């Protein structure tokens, strides 16, 4: 049996890459001798040896450095055939799962996530450190394979880190169709009532954190002033400045911040479409879960969405800017038949991303690395 040590800061069924790791490892565990090294690991019922690393939670740059050093020690002692890491969680690994490309994010947007002044200067320095760490990890001699979660991330790794195309395997993130699926209209009405949502408005859903990068300001602008239109924001972020932004646009009554949810599927099932104008992703789980739940997607043509969204069929790949987004929002609000057709197409487009299939592709790559 293949022995594998898997290193990630956190593995659980919340968030993005944390949940992706949990889904894959749950399915890999019966097939490999698995050791997990993490700061936090919540995989009940999964057969694995877990080594928890205790390091401070903040600042992120210190957390990453201390974790990388301690995790490398645990990995050496585990003595597995393969060491797999999410990004640069350890300085060197045999297999890296690329859920982000810090250099690409820095090149396009400066790596900033809404900071200004002294905070912005600090963020820039931290971002340079993250890029340096990734460059070292992807340049390690022992690297045998890179699993990029989208074709776009694969291109970025070649462009920014010089990773050989021969090492790159594009295996996307997945979705659990048992959890994320559409519901009948009658159940949808009940869900809206239970969640305190109006029955007679078109509801756009925004779900996630890191609101500046994911384009929440533009999402608010896209619905501002549109009659019978509401934006529901699920996730944790700086509510006060976003509320102020909505107030300046006259959209305060149209935007509802509901905070973190342990049952995001209920919000998908209650909404009419996903409004997700993120500036950078690797392959967002949110878009996959929305599609599986039958939501048309309004997003930009970035990593992941360019693979998932067929423009005009299961959603819209919008041009940049609030006005372009608003045009798509208005069309979906006004055309019920279009929403219905796109809903069915979205579900169909999500079928090929089932987690069982994704995990099987991961296992094939791992086995190939030791043959």
Describe the structure.
The protein has 371 residues and is α/β, with parallel strands linked by helices. It is globular, with a radius of gyration of 21 Å. The strands form three sheets. A seven-stranded parallel β-sheet has the order 5-3-1-6-7-8-9, sandwiched between helices. The protein starts with a strand and ends with a helix. The chain has two domains: 2-174 and 354-369, Rossmann fold; 185-353, 3-Layer(aba) Sandwich (Rossmann fold). The mean pLDDT is 94. Helix 6 crosses helix 9 (264-270), helix 7 packs across helix 12 (322-334) and helix 10 (285-292) packs across helix 13. It contains 14 helices and 15 strands. It has helices at residues 17-28, 60-78, 102-109, 117-138, 151-161, 185-195, 216-223, 239-248, 264-270, 285-292, 305-308, 322-334, 336-350, 355-369, and strands at residues 2-7, 10-11, 32-38, 40-41, 49-52, 82-86, 95-98, 145-148, 168-170, 202-207, 229-234, 255-259, 273-276, 297-300, 315-318.
């Amino acid at each position: 049996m293949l022995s594998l040590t898997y290193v990630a800061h956190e593995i659980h069924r919340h968030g993005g890459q944390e949940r992706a790791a949990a889904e894959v490892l749950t399915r890999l565990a019966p097939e490999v001798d698995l050791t997990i090294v993490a700061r936090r690991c919540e995989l009940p019922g999964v057969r694995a040896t877990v080594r928890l690393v205790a390091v401070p939670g903040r600042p992120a740059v210190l957390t990453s450095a201390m974790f990388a050093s301690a995790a490398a020690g645990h990995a050496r002692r585990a003595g597995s055939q393969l060491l797999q890491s999410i990004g640069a969680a350890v300085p060197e690994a045999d297999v890296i799962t690329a859920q982000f490309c810090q250099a690409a994010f820095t090149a396009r947007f400066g790596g900033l996530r809404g900071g200004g002044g002294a905070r912005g200067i600090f963020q820039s320095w931290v971002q340079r450190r993250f890029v340096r760490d990734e460059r070292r990890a992807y340049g390690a001699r022992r690297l045998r394979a890179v699993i990029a979660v989208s074709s776009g991330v694969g291109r970025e790794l070649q462009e920014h880190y010089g990773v050989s195309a021969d090492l790159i395997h594009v295996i996307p993130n997945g979705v659990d169709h048992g959890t994320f699926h559409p519901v009948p209209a009658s159940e949808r009405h009940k869900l809206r009532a239970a969640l305190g949502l109006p029955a007679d408005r078109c509801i756009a859903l925004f779900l996630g954190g890191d609101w500046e990068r994911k384009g929440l300001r533009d999402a608010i602008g896209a619905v501002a002033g549109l009659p019978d239109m509401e934006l529901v924001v699920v996730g944790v972020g700086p509510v006060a400045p976003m509320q102020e932004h909505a107030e300046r646009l006259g959209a305060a009554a149209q935007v509802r911040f509901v905070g973190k949810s342990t049952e995001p599927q209920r919000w998908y099932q209650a909404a009419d479409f996903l409004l997700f104008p993120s500036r950078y992703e690797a392959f967002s789980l949110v878009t996959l879960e929305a599609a599986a739940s039958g939501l048309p997607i309004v997003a930009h043509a970035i990593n992941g969405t360019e693979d998932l969204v067929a423009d005009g069929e299961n959603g819209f790949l919008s041009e940049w800017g609030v006005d372009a987004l608003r045009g798509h929002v208005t069309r979906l609000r006004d055309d019920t038949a279009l929403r219905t057709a796109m809903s069915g197409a979205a579900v169909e487009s999500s079928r090929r991303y089932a987690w069982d299939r994704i995990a099987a592709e991961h296992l094939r790559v791992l086995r190939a690395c030791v043959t």
